[in-house]
Amino acid sequence: MSKSFYVTTPIYYVNDVPHIGHAYTTIAADVIARFNRLKGNKVYFLTGTDEHGQKIERTAEANGEKPIELANRVVKRFQDLSNVLNITNDDFIRTTEERHRIAVEEIFKRVEAAGDIYLSEYEGWYDVREEAFITDTQYEEIQSMPEEKRPVIEKVKEESYFFRLSKYQEPLLRHYKENPEFVKPAYRLNEVVKFVEGGLKDLSVSRTTFNWGIPVPGNPKHVIYVWFDALTNYITGVGFPTDEKMFEDNWPADIHLVGKDILRFHAVYWPAFLMSADLALPKTVFAHGWWTVEGEKMSKSLGNVVDPYQVVDEFGADVFRYFLLREIPFGQDGDYSKSAIIARVNGELANGLGNLVSRTLGMVEKYFDASVPEPAALTADDEAIREKAFSTVEIFEKDMDEVEFNKALVALWDYIADVNKYVDDSAPWTLAKENNAKRLAAVLWTIAQAIGVVTILIYPFMPEAASKIWSRLGSSDSLSSMTLSNAKEWGLVQAGQKVEKGESIFPRFDQK
Ligand code: MSP
Asked: pLDDT tens digits for 167-224?
């Protein structure tokens, strides 16, 4: 069997409920997964939660509960969110599961057997919020920050196991050079290379001053460093080390999606651990940007944290999915605001796509008793709409393969605008008045084909709306069985299919 396309999200800390940042990565991963299924690829899609570490232990303590109680409570919010956002993950991993302990112990032992683990003492600073050991350069950077912006760091002095990260400086640099696809976007690769060129110190990979984690095999006084534990989820999730077949079918990952803040863990530490354990490296780590909210950094203290459940309540999952991926190039930072969502809904979804669908289906109802008409002769104008559909599918596919969601959507909406213009120019209402049934049939048939193509392409982004449009087109095959090659099959929407205009797919919102 061929290897699947394997896509992952970061696993989310359970010290806090989901916000827009979590929804963003998960939605992006889902669109990638759905698009790859559309291409006919076998897909494996993993998401989950990061439940160990000092931060979780402290949050639980502050709440007066056990860490596992906290995790059991909060994980539900993340799992429900998958349903609410129409996420099609194949599995949901929790790092407190037994299968994960087995995987972490195994990789730790392999790294140890490679001679890359030694016992020493860590003395330095630690950032509990980020669960990160602070390097000397970072420490200096922190000191030069204005006080109110400085992260809270704590002095740590304890016995610790170290991973020989320094040994991997050259192998990593070689890997980046030979595999420029390893980190995307390209400008992020430059940052990673610079960081590694700056020199790598060995990394502390265990802690002794708290308990909430996976014990070091053979020395349970230590718990394994939470990032060593967390990163391993990507292989636990595909059967490591117990299910060899599953592991072979899925590993290495094709793409790890991560926020820019956790790129270093994924592009430096993770590949070094994997090299040490003699496991294959993921093909791409893609770092996306961060959302601000109405121009401000999102934070609890500012009280401006965007709750994805609320956004879905107000606008629906499709609109939220579309907005996040259309608003900014994937990789760059963006600003979230309701008015920006509403502008996109009204302009692109209601006026652009919604209007095209409703007026076309309305005319088929009115002029052809709701049956898609049979075209006789097609003109050059009709052919142009077909040609443009084919080139749009190609551009869309290329952009999606490059993880350039917004470009793919721009190309698609450019096509929608062309089709709307074709409708205006062909003026079916005038053809009807003139009793030009032949021409009217050709035009409405052509628009129906165009809508069919658009529906297949928007499906990964807006599965609910696409399914609605698809069923209103009266197609008997299910939308989920369609592939990209069907989108190139002009004539997919067959003459005689019964259509239904129905209620508007994308209601407008008032900017006030
Ligand atoms: N548990 C680690 C990841 C381990 S992966 C092996 C973690 N968890 S997190 O819950 O804090 O963050 C998860 C993701 O949310 C990160 O990719 C982070 O970049 C993302 N975001 C957090 N705030 C964000 C925004 N304001 N905007 C976009 N993404 C943001 O880190």
From this structure: 999 999 999 999 999 999 999 999 999 999 999 999 999 999 999 999 999 999 999 9
The predicted structure's pLDDT at residue 1: 61
Taking the centre of ligand 1 as the mean of its atom positions, its distance from the CA of residue 74, in whole angstroms, is 15
The string over 343-379, giving b where at least 16 C-beta atoms fall within 10 Å of a residue's C-beta and e elsewhere, is ebbbebbbbbbbbbbbbbbebbbebbebebbebeeee
pLDDT digits (tens, 9 = 90+) for 454-505: 999 999 999 999 999 999 999 989 999 999 999 999 999 999 999 999 999 9
CA dihedral over 227, 228, 234, 239, signed as positive or negative: negative
HSE value, Cβ hemisphere, 13 Å, CA-based, for 368: 32
CA distance 210 to 298: 30
Question: pTM for the complete prediction?
Answer: 0.97
Pocket test for ligand 1, best of 13, 19, 306, 320 (most atoms within 8 A of CB): 13
Sequence-distant (≥ 6) Cβ neighbours of residue 39 within 8 angstroms: 397, 483, 484
Q: Which residue has its alpha carbon closest to ligand 1 atom 23?
A: 21
Are the C-beta atoms of residues 382 and 470 closer than 8 Å to each other? no
Please report the pLDDT score of residue 147 as a whole number. 87
Query: 244 Cβ partners below 8 Å, 6+ apart?
Result: none
Atom of ligand 1 nearest to the CA of 22: 15
DSSP 367-417: HHTTBPPPP----HHHHHHHHHHHHHHHHHHHHHHTT-HHHHHHHHHHHHH
Residues within a 6 A CB radius of ligand 1: 10-13, 21-22, 24-25, 50, 230-231, 233, 258-259, 261-262, 290-291, 298
Task: Identify whether the C-beta of residue 415 lies closer than 8 Å to the C-beta of residue 454.
Answer: yes
- Predicted confidence at residue 33, as pLDDT, reads 98
Q: How many CB atoms lie within 10 A of CB 286?
A: 23
Closest residue by CA, ligand 1 atom 26: 291
Contact 455, 479 (CB under 8 A): yes
Report the nearest-CA residue for atom 19 of ligand 1: 259
Give pLDDT, residue 137: 85
Which residue ranges of the chain lie beneath pLDDT 70? Answer: 1
Minimum CA distance residue for ligand 1 atom 8? 12
Ligand 1 mutation target, pool 93, 257, 290, 323, most atoms within 8 A of CB: 290
For a ligand 1 pocket test, name from 13, 16, 20, 22 the mutation site with the most ligand atoms within 8 angstroms of its C-beta.
22
Please tell me the residue having the least CA distance from ligand 1 atom 9: 12
